[in-house]
Amino acid sequence: MILIAGGTGRLGSVLAASLTGRGLPVRVLTRVPARADNLAALGIDVATGDVRDRASLAAAASGADTVVSAIHGFTGPRGTSPVTIDYQGNVNLIDAARAADAQFVLMSVVGAAADSPMELFRMKHAAEQHLRAGDGDWTIVRATAFLELWIDVLAKTAARSGRPVVCGRGDNPINFVSVIDVAGLVEQAVTDPATRGRILEIGGPDNFSFNQLAAAIQQAAGRPAAPRHVPPMVLRLMARSAGYLRPELGRQARAALVMDRADFSFEATGIRQAYPSVSCTPLSMCLAR
Ligand SMILES: NC(=O)c1ccc[n+]([C@@H]2O[C@H](COP(=O)([O-])OP(=O)(O)OC[C@H]3O[C@@H](n4cnc5c(N)ncnc54)[C@H](OP(=O)(O)O)[C@@H]3O)[C@@H](O)[C@H]2O)c1
């Protein structure tokens, strides 16, 4: 049995459906079972639980030979954060997998490091350390930014005003990867024992800026208008003041400032050569979907 925490999410739901399509038994963990109705219709087992609640994880992991973590706490209500979900929640899940004698596949981020300017990346690194320090088989998959997520974010703001909203200057090169490609590599990690004890990093075929992504979205939708920008000064104010009242907004503003400046480019040739069966989806195909 393969338990997928985060199985209702963008990545996890693609992975769950694909593994089920191969005839493998899959269970997804969710806080809200109704979110898994479409997966239950495919014959996927649904376990109710929360990665902050260790007892619920013991029940969900019972009988599992593989546990996949595709969770994150970057967004969500108060109490949901990179510290509580990406670090502490993953520690709880890793411990539950060890108690069930199951191998573990951890979804992390390219750039995970103890000194990253992004809290999320520091917490992913801390979870990686907990996984690597203990007993049991493991694989870590690190990905760059999900293309489908950012197409959705920009397309939603464009649908409201005709112009996508870009945070900051928007000209920093960033690597974006399709969730379909990442799910393919996680599937490889789940099913291929040769990936045990390895960190696999995946990115998309190209690096491009938010301005270029926004322009491609506008062109695909037949809209001529250029994006609107939230100036860095406004993001800095949001990071400070809004962060007190709504930690999630402050976190998003801080992350936007980092994404506007730091190096988020990635060279994906190596992983693509190592795993040629994993799809390599270009931006044009994601936009067409
Ligand atoms: N998005 C990106 O650009 C990106 C880039 C690199 C790596 N990643 C990583 O890829 C993975 C999947 O990301 P995604 O964008 O597909 O996620 P997503 O669509 O936002 O879904 C998040 C998932 O986390 C689960 N979750 C959150 N809090 C939970 C809790 N307290 N207990 C149990 N489950 C909880 C949610 O389950 P329920 O709501 O059903 O409970 C949901 O299935 C994450 O590990 C993420 O860090 C993402």
Task: Produce a short descriptive summary.
This protein has twelve helices and twelve strands.
Description:
This protein has helices at residues 10-21, 37-40, 54-61, 82-99, 119-133, 147-161, 179-191, 210-221, 232-245, 247-259, 269-274, 283-288; strands spanning 2-5, 26-30, 45-48, 66-69, 103-109, 138-143, 145-146, 165-167, 174-177, 198-202, 207-208, 228-230. By secondary structure, it is of the alpha/beta class. The protein has a seven-stranded parallel beta sheet with strand order 3-2-1-4-5-6-10, sandwiched between helices. Helix 3 (54-61) packs across helix 4 (82-99). It is globular, with a radius of gyration of 19 Å. It starts with a strand and ends with a helix. Residues 5-6, 8-12, 29-32, 35, 50-52, 70-73, 80, 85, 89, 107, 109, 143, 145-146, 149 line the site of NADP nicotinamide-adenine-dinucleotide phosphate (NAP).
Labels describing this entry:
binds NADP nicotinamide-adenine-dinucleotide phosphate, three-stranded mixed sheet, alpha/beta, seven-stranded parallel sheet
